[in-house]
Amino acid sequence: MEQTSNKTLSEWVRSTAELTKPDHIHWCDGSKEEYNFLVQKLEASGDFTKLNPKTYPGCYLYRSNPNDVARTEHLTFICSRNKDDAGPLNYWMAPDEAREKANGILQGAMKGRTMYVIPYAMGPIDSPLTRCGVQLTDSSYVAVNMMIMTRAGTKALRRIEREGSFVKGTHTLADLNPERRYIMHFPEELAIISVGSGYGGNALLGKKCHALRIASPQAHTEGWLAEHMLIIGIETPEKETFFVTGAFPSGCGKTNLAMILPPEKFKGYKIWTLGDDIAWLHLREDGRLWAINPENGFFGIAPGTSQKSNPSALDMSKKNSIFTNVGLTKEKEPWWEGLSKTPPEGMIDWQGRPYDPKNGPVAHANSRFTVPLSNCPTYSKLADDPRGVPISAILFGGRRRSLAPLVTEANDWAHGVWLGATAGSETTAAMTGKVGIPRYDPMAMRPFCGYNMADYWSHWLSFASKSTKLPKIYRVNWFRQDDNGHFMWPGFGDNLRVLKWIIDRCKGCAAAESTPIGLLPKPEDINTDGLDIGPDTMKKLLSFSREEWLREMGDIETFFEPFGSRIPHTLLEEHKKIKESLSK
Ligand code: OXD
Ligand code: MN
After folding, report:
1. What pLDDT score was predicted for residue 431?
2. Domain ranges of the chain
3. Nearest-5° Cα angle at 160, 112 to 12
4. Which CATH superfamily is domain 7-30+73-223 in?
5. Does the annotation mark 252 as catalytic?
6. Which tens digits make up the pLDDT trace of 116-126?
7. Which of these CATH numbers, 1.20.58.2050, 3.90.228.20, 3.30.450.20, 3.40.630.30, describes 227-296+381-583?
8. What is the 258 CA–ligand 1 centroid distance (Å)?
9. Choosing from 252, 376, 449, 506, which is the catalytic residue?
10. Is the CB of 430 under 6 A from ligand 1?
11. What separation in Å is there between the alpha carbon of 350 and the centre of ligand 1?
């Protein structure tokens, strides 16, 4: 039955159904009743286990296929017409070849299943910065997750009908065969095809596929930025709020930082949470960069989330949440490594087996919670403001055991882009493959930039000529280790100590010292009141080694090489300046 006045949409739904042959088609209206209906269906089929209704009301556990537990970067393709437009950091497939491959898998793939038609808005429903999409999927798990993660349903459909344009996302579980798993993006056609995976970033197409890989080239064309960034507001005791975005690679604590609780000595400070993963940034008439969070929920990593690291996340996931691939206690509560010291008696592991340490951890290292944004105790209503929030500072981070000081301020915008472009990190369990492997992850966008990263850097650099009121840029590294392999910085809530220096810098009331790699605080500029951390450690945390950095400059040159002449001249000039200053 045709449910929309948009002819492109109804024709696409019709032709996809003809190809994939679902038994039913369900147009999602996004209502509570519909969500409950889908949850009941998942419970009846045994896919969802209801958690303890007293302690976890409205919460469910889902176990994915053990071969389908993380994003698969090696199966993720940018299918631009021109290979060079995808750039050296993306896997590329010619659009015709990709469509042919996908069609072979889509053929009859939804037989025996329902195809859900999910219209969704990325961003507040009435924001001019919002973009819409429609996902077709044969997974009820994906449908309920999309309902939490995006503003899905009739309102989004009406907006699509008014505007006419939308991103087309086709998703099928098919036979979950890793050999026939492809996550394909067609930036020139605003289309996504994802087959053979039901997992998070591969399957919830509004998230990485739309809001980053399709939106980043779209933002390039239209003059804005689609970024892998959290958004927070830092309220000071004087009741001023500074908004900050932060790009950190997957699994580096963005969700924790998005909802930190200030240390005891920081009376009167408050962190407001607007988003933990994605920010869309636009320059407004006032010359400032404003950010919206296109998402409406959290898809956070469970292991390591604890009373110490993130009490707010524990709190917010205690109602109306979906847990994926965590353990299950006798009391029907979720459990993961880090939640308490040892697994409680009678634990069932993430694969549904009685827990046996021989089988590995209780929860998969990339197990997740899906939680509505508004559940967060530090949620800011401004997350729903159609204008977004004005950004004072941008953080670029990574997981580096040495080299990068705790915090470095960029001398100016171009230097800040260099700091972002050369950020490195160690791989985590958020993607399949080995963990702990160092790699450059520019602006934490390596797996998510839908076009040539060199053009992306040029786009970033272009903002310098458009405004004099751009945010200050910082590189941060919470993960520096001493010679014995211990973390030197306590992290978590204590990161506010670094954020305080940053906002004091934005206000113009904190000192910094100019060095070849950027502006650094002196140890006494960071408030360590109440912290068990000696002046020597602070000194080390804020130090850099010329030798190490000169080696790093060489590694960066090797990393830049495959971009050839497409790499922006300004970035190379910046690199040369820093290298010269390090050699003096
Ligand atoms: C995520 C990721 O799920 O970055 O946010 O992998
Ligand atoms: Mn992410």
Report:
1. 76
2. 7-30+73-223, 227-296+381-583, 297-375
3. 40
4. Phosphoenolpyruvate Carboxykinase, domain 1 (3.40.449.10)
5. yes
6. 999 999 999 99
7. 3.90.228.20
8. 14
9. 252
10. yes
11. 19
